[in-house]
Amino acid sequence: MPVSPSDRGYELLELLDPLLLEEIHEAATRHGRVDRAGVRNRGALVHLAQKLGEMGEAREPPEMIAAYGMWYVIMEQVFSDGNHRTAMALGLFVLQVFGLDLPMDERELARFVRSIDTRGLSPEQIGETIAAQMVRK
Fold this sequence. Notes:
Elements lengths: L4 H9 L4 H12 L12 H16 L4 H15 L6 H15 L2 E2 L4 H13 L4 H11 L1 E2 L1
Antiparallel strand pairs: 1-2
């Protein structure tokens, strides 16, 4: 029996660990100015990997998993620098493993990610915005 994109996405989330989150951060900050590279709060990074795994096991909607990951990276300042870029990359990564995408241009996406802390958006509000915009690839 073929595996649905949703099942495959949840299977891939089970592989998410702190090292992979660090790789997402490294890729997100590779191009652009970063004053300090690396993990600022290792405990928060481990917690994030565990929480995203738990959300996957609970089969929460992909947009909510992406939203929580984005919110947590920004609000907890997990990395020394580049948290907004990493949050954006993590959110897109989560959606992509489910065969989904956010068809926003780069500026619109950057404004949305910046609004997470400037407007004090909750994970639920972030998830609602993602759900209203996301499309199947």
